[in-house]
Amino acid sequence: MAKIFASPANYTQGRGVAAEIGTHAEDLGGSAVLLADDIVMDIVGDTVTESLEDHEFDTETMEFRGECSEREIERVADQASEYGSDVIVSAGGGKALDAAKAVAERLDIAMVSMPTIASTDAPTSSLSVIYTEHGEFEEYWFHSKNPELVLVDTAIIAGAPTRTFRSGIADALATWFEADATYRSHGENIFGGASTRAGHALAELCYETLRRHGVSAVHAVENGAVTESVEAVTEANTLLSGLGFESGGLAAAHSIHNGLTQLEATHDATHGEKVNIGTLSQLVLEGKDDAFVEDVIEFSLDIGLPVTLADIGLDDPTDDQLETVAEAACVEEETIHNEPFPVEPAMVRDALVTVNELGERHK
Ligand SMILES: [Zn+2]
Q1: Which of 32, 48, 315, 353 has CB 3.0 to 4.6 Å from 87, enough for a Cys bridge?
Q2: Annotated active-site positions, please?
Q3: How far is the CA of 193 from the centre of ligand 1 (A)?
C-alpha cells in the first residue's frame, strides 16, 4: 500500500486575520460567495465582504440553514452557480464548512474554510459528513481536494463559547492515539493509503501541544483572551488534528463515538465530548498502563471534559444500550478495525463500563 499525505494549500492563523481575507484569497478567483448562518454572518459578514471587495472580488452572501444535508448542498450549489462564483468562502462550525466543501467539489470551484470555533477538525479536511434533514448521521462524502485556504482568526475563536474550544481539545486528543494505532497496524488513512512519517509525527505533536498548553488555553478562552497558549491549542485543534486524522488515520475512539450517537440520550453532548469517552475506551481496549489511563482521565478533568457515561447523558445505561453502542462501533466499515488486534463488540462494551468506573473514581 502506498503512503499518502494530503493537506490544504494554505493555512493562515492569527488575531484579526478575518479582515485580511482579500489578501490571502486574492489568487483564488474574482467572484466570491460567503456562506454563513445568520449568527456567524453578524460576526464576520461585513469584515469579510469589505476585505474581499477591497481586493476586486464581486461578493455575494448566502445564509446557511444549519444542516449539512444533500438538499442544502444542492440549494447552495444552485445559487452559487447562478452567481457565477469561482470561490466559496464558508464561515462557521463543521457543518457550514462541510456543506461548502461539497459545493466546491460539485461546481469545481475554490474553497476557503473559515472556522469561527475550534471545536472539530473539519476545517482542513477533504471530506464532508452528510446528515439527514433531521440531523441524523448519514454518510461521509470524500472529495478530490482539501480547501485551498484555511483562515483562522484567533480573536473570533477566543470569543466563542468555551465549550466549543474544550470540545475541540477532546477531538484533537483522540488524534494521536488513533493515528498511532493505525500506524502500528499498517491500517489505512482517510485517503486509502498508509501513514507517512509526517502524518504520524504531526499527530504526536498535536498531543504534546495539548498537554503543554491545554489548561491555560482554556482559562484564557474563558475570559475571551488570546494568548500564545490559545494560538498553540487552536493550531492543535484545527491544523495538527486535521492533518493528523486525515493522513494518520482514525481507529477506535471515533468508532465508539459513532456508536454512542445511536443513543438519543447522548445527543446533547458535542462531537468532542462523545469522542473523549471513545478515547478513554480505546486506551482501556489497548491495555495501556493504569497510570497512563489515569493521567489522561486527570487531564480530561482539568480541561472540563467528560470521563463518565453520565457526563454525556447516559445516567444509567442498560445492557441493551451498551450493546447497541458496541455493535455499531464494530460494523465492518468502522475505523475501529485499524486497531492492531481484532476488536469485537463485547470488548467495546467492557471497555465502556471500565472507563465509567475509573472516571467515577477520579471525580
Ligand atoms: Zn472528530
Answers
A1: 32
A2: 171, 254, 257, 271
A3: 19
Cα angle value 322/328/333 (rounded, 5°): 155
| Ion ligand 1 neighbours, Cβ < 5 Å | 171
Residue ranges for the binding site for glycerol? 121, 171, 254, 271
CA of 288 to the centre of ligand 1 (A): 22
Residues 189 and 84 in one domain: no
The domain spanning residue 28 has which CATH number? 3.40.50.1970
Instruction: For residue 268, give the nearest of 312, 220, 330, 237 by alpha carbon.
Output: 312
pLDDT in tens, 9-24: 999 999 999 999 999 9
Give the number of other CB atoms < 10 A from CB of residue 26.
Answer: 13
This prediction has a pTM of 0.95
**Residue with C-alpha cell 481586493?**
55
> Residues 182-209: pLDDT tens digits?
999 999 999 999 999 999 999 999 999 9
Are 33 and 168 in a shared domain?
no
**From the CA of 94, how far away is ligand 1's center (Å)?**
10
